[in-house]
User: Fold this.
Amino acid sequence: MPQLAIPDGTLAYLDRGTGPPVTCCHGFALAAASWTEVAAAAGPGWRWLLPDHRGHGRTRVPAAASHSLEAGAEDVLRLWDAVGAERSHLLGYSMGGRLALTLAVRAPERLSSLVVVSAHAGLEADERPPRRAADRAWARRLRREGVGPFADAWEALPLLAGVARRSRRARARLARLRRRSRPEGLAASLRDGGAGAMTPVWERLATVTCPVLVVAGAEDPRYRAHAVRLAARLPHGRVAVVPRCGHAVPAERPYLLGRMLREFLRSVETDRG
Assistant:
């Protein structure tokens, strides 16, 4: 797995395929490889740039360093510069979706298109303090119990119940990915990059003028509502709802998401001429 030197550590990433770049930002407690099924379903003709974000996988950044979404967005920009990607399609799920939105308003000129899956652009002011408290509690549990027990509890969350529909082999693969990270890294990610810590970007979404697809699972009503709100704020945003699917769309229905992604990306490339 290639390693890119960044100011406060090293960023691990996968770089696969040839064609227009597609950069994928994974969810919390996952890693770059969580996108491989989606990428396979999207088919050939794309260059997949898949980073392990701060606190996750094989990326190494001191726990005391910033693990904010803004820092993660800067990492992706450095990756694009290092591999010669002047522009990229950008895809993000959950935490990675919030990172992708943070990057989109930071550098909209670098995006060919944006796909946001099961994410929002920041919580309301009264929602942030209780969410920060909950994230701090998860972080304490991580430090106290380690990644294994934490991952067991995280996978049992009702939000992720739809993953149980996958085969035992697929679930085991996801479980292994969750256990690749270090507890101090995941705790730092919750501290700085959790939903309660995110600086909302709703008011800046109008600057994102590329085509945008906002995806949510049919069985995830809260994030379907977020998707509608996001699409309404984005000049060229539209909503796609994945049937028989909850929050964890890339894990629950990766092949359908991959096909949806292929159609969307092809339409964007065709329109660009």
User: Anything to note?
Assistant: The chain has a mean pLDDT of 96. The chain has one domain: 3-272. The beta strands are 3-6, 9-16, 21-25, 47-51, 88-93, 111-117, 212-217, 237-242.
